[in-house]
Design brief:
The chain is mostly beta strands. The protein is built from one helix and 25 strands. Strands 2-5-6-7-8-9-10-12-13-14-15-19-20-21-22-25 form a 16-stranded antiparallel barrel.
């Protein structure tokens, strides 16, 4: 731009030059953000992606805005439970394709002490789903540091849950093909995929990391999936109450023996792929007064609380810090108290919507008794081979997962096994997972509701994950 003498004063010239420099900085940032989206998947280990889609402000690393994208795409074969129907047609075996998750997230450090986080997306979209399913809000929170990182208070639609580490799972870093859903005990019953509206207090004191929340649960009548009502005839069999829900209180604490984890958002990492040496011992709880009810032998309706306790240990250790071959291990015990004989069957991303005359206690598709009053032991174990085991095509991480649940309503335990392999093409940014799950099938007989070894079913899932 040319400036003519006598047209602008010195102050005006300085202002225009300052605006020009400012516009140049903004343009560079826009070009940088655009270039991030233009980088091919094969180059996701580029340094541009170390911090995701991130732009810093005020020429420092404190103030920033950061975006994230996640997609998980499934190809699946499922051996359906006996008697499974899809729109009235019996199907014993199913092959389907679908989108397990899509996420778009934004987080921003607005000031040195104010942090904003939001996430939108969708879950479980396949040919059985309602068409044109829309995105919905998963999280939207703001938190404020009251005293350094020791005391932080926040609120909104949040996922600061209690009971165990993976009651708040980081979906981009899941160790296996899918979340350990047995730890999301009220998923989409009194919450929105694990989130509730409320306030939370979190922080870190020395090596102790803590989170506490007070939240208002969703009424069960608002659930997208029908919640089993109180039976008019069953005695001493609990169900979720349809009365106005009372406050939910939750907390989780963990001691970090080695390196510390980042807990800016509520979601816990499933595997660090040898990048950290983490040994954490945790404990948590959840309580909600009068969340459940049941009919007594006198046919009175009795209200009881929802109460849960959990303890767990998480280990992620690089056997060779240079090669990054690593072991990831996790184990937890959870005590679930929902009232007498409470049991909930669920099929994750189910491929069927009904049962015929040959149906079993499990229900349709891939459902099985998932949550109930009783005890749960859950474990994960994985070994990650050295980086670049496959050259530029990344490395491999085989894993094994096991859930053993002993619920009051069942005469035999619920044993679920998963064995799988992660092909880490570019770490968690580009990952292909092959998973086999074996699940029990339960039926009512003279000894109670028991698993039938002859009817055990399985599914195989191939998942591709893209995460930025």
């Amino acid at each position: 731009m040319k400036y003519q003498a006598g047209t602008y004063g010195i102050s005006e010239l300085n202002l225009m030059l300052a605006n020009k420099r400012k516009n140049m900085r903004i343009a560079k940032r826009i070009l940088l953000a655009a270039s991030l989206f233009a980088v091919p998947v094969g180059f996701t280990q580029n340094k541009l992606f170390e911090d995701g889609l991130k732009i810093t402000f005020k020429n420092d690393s404190v103030h920033y805005i950061k975006a994230g994208i996640l997609g998980q795409f499934w190809t699946r074969y499922n051996h359906n439970n006996p008697g499974s129907l899809l729109n009235g047609t019996e199907q014993d075996h199913v092959v389907d394709f679908g989108i397990r998750r899509i996420r778009f997230s934004v987080q921003a450090q607005v000031t040195k002490s104010t942090f904003f986080y939001t996430q939108v997306g969708l879950n479980n979209l396949n040919s059985v789903s309602a068409r044109k399913s829309g995105l919905f809000v998963h999280d939207i929170t703001v938190d404020q540091q009251l005293y350094k990182d020791i005391i932080v208070i926040g609120g909104g639609l949040h996922g600061y849950n209690g009971t165990s580490r993976f009651s708040s799972s980081g979906v981009a870093s899941i160790l296996g093909m899918d979340l350990p859903v047995v730890m999301e005990s009220t998923n989409d019953v009194t919450d929105q995929f694990g989130r509730k509206y409320g306030v939370y207090l979190k922080g870190e004191v020395s090596r102790l990391n803590y989170r506490l929340s007070v939240s208002k649960p969703f009424p069960v009548q608002n659930s997208l999936n029908a919640v089993a009502p109180l039976s008019p005839t069953a005695i001493n069999q609990a169900a979720f109450s349809t009365k106005a829900p009372q406050m939910n209180y939750a907390g989780y604490f963990f001691w970090q023996f080695m390196e510390k984890e980042t807990t800016r958002t509520p979601y816990m990492n499933g595997s660090y792929l040898g990048k950290k040496w983490v040994v954490n011992l945790g404990a948590g709880a959840q309580y909600q007064k009068n969340a459940m009810w049941y009919r007594s032998t006198e046919l009175d309706t009795v209200s009881v609380p929802l109460f849960q306790l959990g303890v767990d240990i998480f280990v992620d250790y690089a056997l060779n810090p240079d090669k990054k071959n690593a072991v990831t291990a996790y184990a937890t015990y959870m005590n679930y108290q929902f009232g007498p004989d409470y049991i909930r069957n669920a099929g994750i991303f189910n491929v069927a919507n009904g049962t015929g005359q040959n149906g079993t206690f499990n229900g349709a598709g891939n459902a099985f008794p998932l949550i109930g009053t009783g005890h749960v032991f859950y474990s994960q174990l994985a070994y990650k081979f050295r980086d670049e085991l496959l050259g530029k095509q990344g490395t491999l991480q085989p894993y094994f997962m096991h859930s053993h649940a002993k619920y009051q309503a069942l005469a035999s335990p619920v044993q679920v096994f998963n064995i799988g392999l992660n092909w880490l093409i570019a770490g968690q940014n580009s990952k292909l997972s092959l998973d086999y799950q074996s699940r029990p099938v339960f039926n009512q007989n003279a000894g109670g509701i028991m698993a039938d070894p002859a009817l055990r079913r399985g599914q195989v899932v191939l998942q591709y994950q893209l995460s930025i």
